[in-house]
Amino acid sequence: MEIGTDFQEGEPWAPHVVVDRNLVTGQNPASAGPLAGELLKRLR
Fold first, then answer.
1. Pairs from 3-12 (Cβ < 8 Å, separation ≥ 24)
2. Is 24 exposed, middle or buried, given 0-12, 13-18 or 19+ CB atoms closer than 10 A?
3. pLDDT tens across 3-42, in order?
4. Can you say how many angstroms the Cα of residue 28 is from the centroid of all Cα atoms in its chain?
5. What is the dihedral of CA 9, 35, 38, 18, to 10 degrees?
6. CA separation for the pair 17, 42 (Å, rounded)
7. What is the distance between the alpha carbons of residues 5 and 37, in angstroms, rounded to a whole number?
8. Where are the beta strands (DSSP E) in the chain?
9. Beta partners for residue 19, in sequence order
10. Are 17 and 25 in contact (CB under 8 A)?
11. d(CA 36, CA 30)
12. Is residue 32 within 8 Å of residue 14, measured between CB atoms?
């Protein structure tokens, strides 16, 4: 079994959200809105 990372970088200061199974993460403060939207989808 191989364990590693998959780093995904967006444009500096632009919204960038990554969803991987149960992990939802944003790159920077500009990602707060889109990140909240993803979290709300999962709560429904």
1. none
2. middle
3. 788 888 999 999 999 999 899 999 999 999 999 999 999 9
4. 10
5. 10
6. 14
7. 25
8. 17-20, 23-26
9. 24
10. yes
11. 11
12. no
Tokens standing for residue 41: 């989808």
What is the CB neighbour count within 10 angstroms for residue 15? 16
Can you read off the two tokens belonging to residue 9?
């970088």
Q: In whole angstroms, how far apart are CA 42 and each of 7, 19, 23, 25, 37?
A: 23, 11, 11, 13, 9
pLDDT band at 2 (very low <50, low <70, confident <90, very high): confident
The length of the chain in residues reads: 44
Residue keyed to tokens 């990140």: 35
